[in-house]
């Protein structure tokens, strides 16, 4: 064992009930103002977490790393993001369907080239690390080589990632379409190659009901039966024109969600992005099937999709937080929380700082079925953590100086913070990113 103690304020959350992520009281904060996170850099796992004095007393001789004005937290988790869309983030003036046709589909065609995909995956993963995100549920493109490139890059960095090849066989440019048969074969090959290799996991990824035939949705259901430990990711009820199109394409189904339900795509390993416009019956089916929604605030505002109901659900559905880049406008989960807070304000509810930081760590780990290994500092967990600089900008420094409680500090951090607030990012005990300070630059 090679032990290291990372010393600063330390904060993490544990869940009181893994069943109820819709409840704002389902978590317990653990805050140590003079804390230490002890890790074993050989195994890449957490050894202990608590008050520095007691942690250091229990491990005499442990190597000590100290950070000033810092907060150590579990690495943040993003439950829905598209790595090929770093090329279309911040594209002007459209709602969902036009945005897909005019910006996204043209850009995704470049990922037929594996070298382009590999270079983009490197860029994307470095950006995630720079933003303090250590795990994400990620869309590739229709090209299997886009997923090979992604997993090669994330495996090399030892990041815990979930990714899948997009399945789409209609209503998209020919160059981006597969078939029901080829999507079955290619998804299977990718699952066999990557699922469970190191920290990599596969997600069956039908893009959304508009771009899949009945035959292809059947294939998606078949893959989930064949491989019960893979994730399912897709989009659901994001935009009113999208919903109308789905109703035209599947007149035999009761709702957009019912299309996925009919083909066996609901369940505890399923993450549906958006769900902005759902009926009470839809909430009920999501709830009783144990499915998850991914709330994508910056995307919902940017594409004008609507206001997600985080706290006002007619039936309790588990909800993750997500950036949805490139419909979303920031890879920072801090900025994602800031926009989530504002959407809750418009819905007449309030997202507290503790709920917010719980959701982007332990909560999102639960959504992805990974809370047994990431999302908190329980002993034995994988040591994915970030060091946050609470004084990253002059304004943040000034505002922090007026804060009295950890709740106030966290709230200012999520509203004002972004990539500048990430001082360092560690995965499995190894430093993947460290911000170069102004002081170091001038030396
Ligand atoms: N629905 C289908 N595809 C997409 C996508 O790429 N982004 C978003 N935001 N919604 C989608
Ligand atoms: Zn998306």
Automatic annotation (TrEMBL):
Single Gene Ontology BP annotation: guanine catabolic process
Q: Which InterPro entries match?
A: Amidohydro-rel, Guanine_deaminase, Metal-dep_hydrolase_composite, Metal_Hydrolase, Metallo-dep_hydrolases
User: Which cofactors is this protein said to need?
Assistant: Zn(2+)
**Which pathway does UniProt place it in?**
Purine metabolism; guanine degradation; xanthine from guanine: step 1/1
Q: A Pfam family name for this chain? A: Amidohydro_1
Catalytic activities:
guanine + H2O + H(+) = xanthine + NH4(+)
GO annotation, cellular component aspect: cytosol
Keywords noted in UniProt: Hydrolase, Metal-binding, Zinc
Q: Which GO terms describe its molecular function?
A: guanine deaminase activity; zinc ion binding
Name used for this protein in its record: Guanine deaminase
The species is Thalassolituus oleivorans MIL-1
Source organism phylogeny: Bacteria, Pseudomonadati, Pseudomonadota, Gammaproteobacteria, Oceanospirillales
């Amino acid at each position: 064992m090679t032990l290291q103690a990372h010393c600063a304020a330390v904060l993490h959350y544990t869940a009181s009930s893994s069943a109820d992520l819709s409840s704002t009281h389902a978590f317990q904060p653990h805050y140590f103002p003079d804390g230490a996170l002890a890790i074993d850099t050989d195994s890449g796992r957490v050894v202990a977490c608590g008050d520095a004095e007691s942690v250091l007393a229990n491990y005499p001789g442990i190597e000590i790393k100290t950070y000033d004005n810092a907060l150590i937290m579990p690495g943040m988790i993003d439950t829905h993001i598209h790595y090929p869309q770093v090329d279309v983030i911040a594209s002007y003036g459209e709602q969902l369907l036009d945005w897909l046709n005019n910006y996204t589909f043209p850009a995704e065609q470049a990922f037929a080239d594996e070298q382009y995909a590999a270079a983009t995956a490197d860029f994307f993963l470095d950006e995630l690390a720079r933003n303090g995100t250590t795990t994400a549920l990620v869309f590739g493109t229709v090209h299997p080589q886009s997923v090979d490139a992604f997993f090669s890059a994330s495996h090399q960095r030892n990041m815990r990632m979930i990714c899948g090849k997009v399945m789409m066989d209609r209503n998209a440019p020919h160059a981006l379409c597969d078939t029901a048969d080829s999507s079955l074969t290619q998804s299977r090959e990718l699952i066999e190659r990557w699922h469970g290799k190191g920290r990599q996991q596969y997600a069956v990824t039908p893009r959304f009901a508009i771009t899949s035939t009945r035959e292809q949705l059947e294939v998606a259901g078949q893959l989930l039966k064949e491989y019960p430990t893979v994730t399912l990711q897709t989009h659901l009820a994001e935009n009113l024109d999208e919903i109308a199109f789905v109703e035209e394409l599947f007149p035999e189904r009761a709702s957009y969600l019912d299309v996925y339900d009919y083909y066996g795509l609901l369940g505890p390993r399923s993450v549906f992005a958006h769900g902005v416009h759902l009926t009470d019956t839809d909430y009920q089916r999501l709830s009783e099937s144990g499915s998850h929604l991914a709330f994508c605030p910056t995307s919902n505002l940017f594409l004008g999709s609507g206001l997600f109901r985080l706290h006002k659900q007619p039936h309790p559905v588990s909800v993750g937080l997500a950036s949805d880049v490139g419909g979303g406008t920031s890879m920072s989960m801090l900025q994602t929380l800031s926009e989530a807070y504002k959407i809750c304000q418009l819905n007449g509810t309030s997202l507290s700082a503790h709920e917010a930081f719980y959701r982007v760590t332990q909560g999102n780990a639960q959504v992805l079925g990974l809370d047994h290994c990431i999302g908190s500092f329980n002993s034995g967990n994988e040591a994915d953590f970030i060091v946050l600089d609470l004084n990253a900008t002059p304004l943040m420094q000034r505002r922090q100086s007026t804060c009295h409680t950890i709740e106030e500090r966290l709230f200012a951090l999520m509203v004002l913070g972004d990539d500048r607030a990430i001082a360092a990012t560690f995965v499995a005990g190894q430093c993947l990113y460290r911000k170069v300070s102004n002081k170091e630059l001038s030396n």
